[in-house]
Amino acid sequence: MKKRFIAMVLAFVMVLALGACTSETPANDPGTETPEATGGMVEGGEITVGLYNDLDASLDPHMSSSSAGTREILFNIFEGLVKPNSDGELVPAIAESYSVNDSADQYTFKLRQGVKFHNGKDVTADDVVWSLSRAAGLETGEPLVGDVANIAAVTKTDDTTIVIDLKKPDTEFLAHITTAIIPEGIDPLSEVVGTGPFKFVSRVVQSEIVLEKFDEYWGEPAHLDKVTLKIIENPETLVMSLRSGAVDMAVRLNANQIKTLTNLKVLEGSSNIVQALYLNNAVKPFDDVRVRQALCYALDKHEIIDLASDGYGSPVGSSMFPAFGKYFMPELTDYYTKDLDKAKELLTEAGYPDGFEFTITVPSTMQTHVDVAQTIVELLRPIGVTAKVDQVEWATWYSDAYQNRQFEATVVGMDAHGVAASDMLARFQSTHAKNFINFNSPKYDETFAAAVSTTDDAEQTRLFKECETILAEEAANVYIQDGASFTAMATDLEGMEFYPLYVLDLSTIYRTK
Predict the structure, then answer these.
(1) Helices 457-473 & 442-453, crossing angle to 10 degrees?
(2) What is the pTM of this model?
């Protein structure tokens, strides 16, 4: 897979190298030419995009966090004080500029003038204070957005200036302030009102979401007038819809799905996730580090990528994907090399000389994860471990496995909400609400706490890498890959931009003559 690595500057003490992979790929084999569009840009028109999962039940941007796919689409509707661009840079959005004090515990934002909400009202400093206070739970004591839980106070010093005081220093805070700004006092459960290039029009649950171009958008306007997002959960049906022209575009397809799409343009990018066999460290036998390490020795991630993903994908050895170039540790990729004898020895030491049985619970709509889970089942047989795959609906997986932690193992991908290293690593703190694998390591907790409290960039980088090493050493999970992600689109569509995080930017897409 071709890679291009992009430097991202957080405009103060932290520099984060991000990578995105974008290449146009033949739809079936290297000898087949992908159809090309000709002609110039056409403004206006509409397209239909196929989605393999419905969005969250609530489109409240401060509460819609169960699905990366939801955040992917809401990116087009909502904006924060800053937002990421396709190069991974954090750029001004509702704020036109900002400054940070030397101790990194106070951030000052100058608001952009003339920004309008989709309901036609101007964005005011009061809207910003209300939005961030709500997200941070300053009145309730219960943050709705974990990324901004460190906010101690949000103050309007004048009509165009906002000061945010933090409970403790955070050099990565700018990456968290992408939190959506919404009109003061609205009910976000019933009103979907943002400032982005597209506005929400309608939704039929499990069927479709309709967005329209926002004509009063402050920035670069969208090219399309309308986008209909069709929910097509069956992978085969989604492919057939692409082939028939019922949908114009679909993202996050896997290598198997694109093989028959010879009538479409296929682009290759990275998923920007950490796909792993996630293990519930609180249930037997995975409460024993030796068992977890045994699985790591039994499973060769390169072999899994070849068998399940046709060789597409970038292997990972801890909870950081390659786009986080500054923090990614390629040396951890082969921390465990395949050694079946070592795996059996560890199982015997742990009291499982004859192996054991367990269930891998996987969301049925995520074919990439299903394929990997089924491959893992076969690769574990030689060490006497019997696994079975239980495919469940996304809502069931999220409720039972993720929220209630009622699972033994699962194959999914964990993404970063933003562009901060702590987005990937915070969830493994023993007391963190998102620590769904129940990982418990005093050494990890201590190291992570030190990482987020220092304002020294080099020291913070070293400590974050130490966190990644602990996750590998203690075999928190069996790490596999940052999978390839394919976008298929009609040949007269152009403008697709890949981001180094979970984003589908619909505003850049346009038809050609």
Answers:
(1) 160
(2) 0.78
